[in-house]
Design a protein that fits this description.
Radius of gyration: 18 Å
Order of helices and strands: EEHEHEHEHEEHH
Number of helices: 6
Distance between the termini: 32 Å
């Protein structure tokens, strides 16, 4: 994928990039409390972060709710409360509208903004969060689960994690 931003900066992303970046973001989301089945509203424009976020949510079993940028604060409040949304990952230009719309949303625990180098109060920066080189959690196993034919059962490892 070749991405050109508003300033003309070109970025070429291959499958290896998406694999590594989505794994890093998946670790961050799990650390922040997002679990299998949790819903996360994704309000990112045509950005590389959109695709990384979608892959990361799929990896941890989260449910991505892609939402248009034209939502009003009332729309956001309605969607968050009625869909039981746990987090929002959004473009930095949408944070004022989202802040107004989420004042009465007690279930929200995760706010991540993308595209801004400055720290916004109450929001985590996508750029800083997704740059972990080392996994936050890992465990050792004595023996891998196998099928009768000898194949490793990866889904069992994921369930036990």
């Amino acid at each position: 994928m070749i991405h050109v931003d508003d300033h003309g900066n070109e970025m070429t992303c291959d499958l290896n990039f998406f694999s590594k970046e989505s794994s890093r973001l998946a670790n961050v989301l799990q650390e922040k409390g997002i679990q299998k089945g949790d819903r996360v509203m994704v309000m990112l424009f045509r950005r590389v972060e959109f695709w990384v976020t979608m892959l990361a949510l799929h990896k941890i079993g989260g449910v991505a709710i892609p939402s248009p940028f034209m939502l009003t604060s009332k729309d956001i409040e309605y969607r968050v409360n009625h869909a039981d949304i746990r987090g929002i990952i959004a473009d930095h230009t949408l944070t004022p509208v989202i802040n107004r719309g989420t004042k009465n949303c007690p279930g929200l625990s995760l706010f991540i903004e993308a595209g801004n180098e400055e720290h916004l109060e109450g929001w985590d920066s996508y750029t800083h969060l997704a740059k972990f080189k080392i996994p936050r959690k890992f465990s050792f196993v004595d023996e891998l689960p196998h099928t009768p034919s000898g194949k490793v059962m990866k889904f069992k490892l994921r369930e036990d994690a």
